[in-house]
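Input.
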Amino acid sequence: MPVYFAFSDESGKYKKERSDKFISKNPFYCRSAVILEAHDWMKLREKFYLLKKNFLKIRRHQPVKWSYIWSLYKHFQKGERIPRHKPYFALRNHSLDKLVDFIRKVLQLLCECPSCRIILTLTFNERQKTEPLEMKEIARLHMSHIFNTSEKEMRKIPESVCVFFMSREEPALEKTIKKAFFEIHQESSPQKYLRIKNSLNFEYFPQSFGGQAADYCAGVFNGCLRLYPQSIDLFRHQLWPRIVQEKNMVLGYGLTELPKNAKNRAYLENILDKVKAAEEREYRISLEARLKS
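Output.
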């Protein structure tokens, strides 16, 4: 029986009542899921730890979160010393480019892994795009889509089963996710999720390769939606090839807006068109630079 592990994490924040300041800081709430066959997970986990040891020269359980890069950037920009109590203190001597390169290498491991499947979901925080729903309803929408898509993928593989792992959250959010999960399964027919183990596992982030990989996928996706060049590059080259497709379609399957509606789908498509155009523009600039040299 093929056993798969799915790791899910979030990027950005969501609130039912959203001020202009909150929306400006958090235009999107994103969630990712990274699915790996158990044997591949074991192999990639060791490669991940070796990258930490050999490339970054840090201990294997030192977390390297996507958000740490932004935090370090703000300190560097202000010329500040990194406070010793900060979780990214051990990364203070690394350049931001090296940290991004580390994440690129990790995502490339996923990209080259045949069993890897990536699912990405997002909610637009602009008030005219998303009505004021409770966080539990938003969590439920994201998790339902991820479970439904994962179930479809598992049914393509005879006798496969998938176990879900979530990165530990603040207590209130973790409780909300658990409630949403309980309601999803309580209201589903016994036959709906035959290939997904009906339990959630919350794991300690620094010890989880899968959790950190899911963190990178969610963070890169969020940055890509904001049209940040480095995020666009990582999204197009490392993430896109592994996003789940259905009949050669990504939108609505491996990548979707939630709640789903035609207006927000068009808005998402417009962002992805800008992402593609930005990538093509960067390619032309790079090509012209090489030709001039």
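The chain has a mean pLDDT of 91.
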